Amino acid sequence: MLRTIGALLVVMGAAGTGVGLSVFVRHSAGILQQLIMSLEQMKSEILFRKTPLPELTARLAENCGGEVGSFWSEVSDGLRIGQARSVCEVMRRALSGRAAGSFPAQARRTLQNLGAGLGNYDAAGQVRAVDLALSRLGGLFTELRDEQKSRMKSYCTLGVCAGLALAILML
Cβ distance 157 to 16 under 8 Å? Predict the structure, then answer.
């Protein structure tokens, strides 16, 4: 009886792990989508309103929620306080912070590269940097979205199968 209960718990735990991994994939896609939307807003603000970066990042923080909003809030605070000499340093600090910890690694690298282009060039140069980041994040989002269904199914199936294998070994 105890073995059966233990086997069921192992199967449920492994299946839960698989479901957790699939939720992580969905969460990553949501973060990328929010980042893309915030960069599109940034591009518009730079082009049409010529909004200064501290005010622009504060506006992005207000409009975004969750980790993306917290990230832009950290960038805005860093720019207003003058924590670093360049936007690149502020972005690097914000990307190493807790808010950006759940960003996909490629998204963090893309944002780091974007930080090198913001504040160092005229509006046209900054828009080109944002466009480059948008194209990279867009490609990453498309790739993740295309693989999302198969990955989520695979993770769930793998979790159940691993749990069943362990349960069989236990019995």
Answer: no
- Furthest-apart CA atoms within the chain: distance in Å: 72
| Rounded Cα–Cα distance for residues 135 and 133 (Å) | 5
The amino acid occupying position 98 is: R
How far apart, in whole angstroms, are the C-alpha atoms of residue 59 and residue 73? 9
> Taking the mean position of all CA atoms in its chain, how far away is CA 3?
41
Mean pLDDT for each 10-residue chunk of the chain (171 residues)?
A: 76 74 77 94 91 90 90 90 78 84 88 88 90 94 81 74 76 70
Determine the residue type at 63. N
pLDDT computed for residue 114 by the predictor: 92
Tokens 């957790």 belong to residue: 20
Q: Determine the Cα–Cα distance for residues 92 and 2; give it in Å rounded to an integer.
A: 52
In angstroms, the CA 46 to CA 9 distance is: 54
Residue 117 token pair: 């282009």
Model pLDDT, residue 41: 94
